[in-house]
Amino acid sequence: MTTQRPRAVTVLRWCGLVLLAVIAVFFVARAVAEIATVDPDRPESYEQDWGGPHYLGVVAVHAGPGLLILLSTALWLRRLTHQRKTHHSKK
Question: pTM value?
Answer without folding.
Answer: 0.74
